[in-house]
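Hello Y.,

Per our agreement to keep a running log of every chain we model this quarter, I'm adding this entry. I've kept the format consistent with earlier entries: sequence first, then predicted structure.
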Amino acid sequence: MELITREICLTSDVGTKDILFGGRMLAWADIAASIWCRKLVKSDNLVTVHMSD
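Predicted structure for the entry above:
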């Protein structure tokens, strides 16, 4: 397994029960996927088209 990125979880990223907001985690996952795909295809011309439940 390859480490793609690291993020620091701030208090503004969690709710009252100290659980990470799902939208924040999804944003981090999108960034990591973008970095990995750019390395795979050797191009910066990539976008996330759609993510669903």
